[in-house]
Amino acid sequence: MSLGLKRGMVKLEPHDNNWELEAEKIIAVLKSILGKAVVDIQHVGSTAISAISAKPIIDIAVGLKDIMQIHTYNDRLEKQGIYCRGSYFDGQILYVCGDLANDIRTHHIHIVKWNGTEWNNYLNFRDYLNANADIALQYQHLKEELEGKYMNDRSAYTQGKHALINEILENAGMWRAIYNGKSV
Prior knowledge:
Layout (H helix, E strand, L loop, with lengths): L4 E2 L11 H17 L3 E7 L13 E7 L9 H6 L3 E7 L2 E8 L4 E10 L3 H15 L1 H17 L4 H26 L5
Parallel strand pairs: 3-6
Antiparallel strand pairs: 1-6, 2-3, 4-5, 5-6
């Protein structure tokens, strides 16, 4: 199993069931450190979608009631090789793991408000694509096209996915409302 990419690089790999095992390991570490502060922790992102290829970086969403509380755990997280990289997106704080001396990331850990917009988007996106293989493959095809254009420019790669991700998130939110027995 391949795990990790140099920061800024884009390289997709076929789905690997071992990604789930890697996610479970880091989730266990996070639960042991964060204890009662954490409401839930989930494996998210493309490595959690079984029908598609992904960058070999495990994405984890950590749901807290107060995301700023995470900073009180920084020393303990760093002892486990988990480092804060700041707030790159509204409503979340990014932590990373990997061979940071060589600028290789193996895990992106997204600290978000539990049951907030970001939390729900991560879960809805994952669950919707796992339940709809045709849409997951549409997403994969776009990712493959962008990988060919932007192998060394992850920002452009990410920007190229933006419109489709927003469309998927809108549909996933409606799907979730129906799936949970709520009216749309």
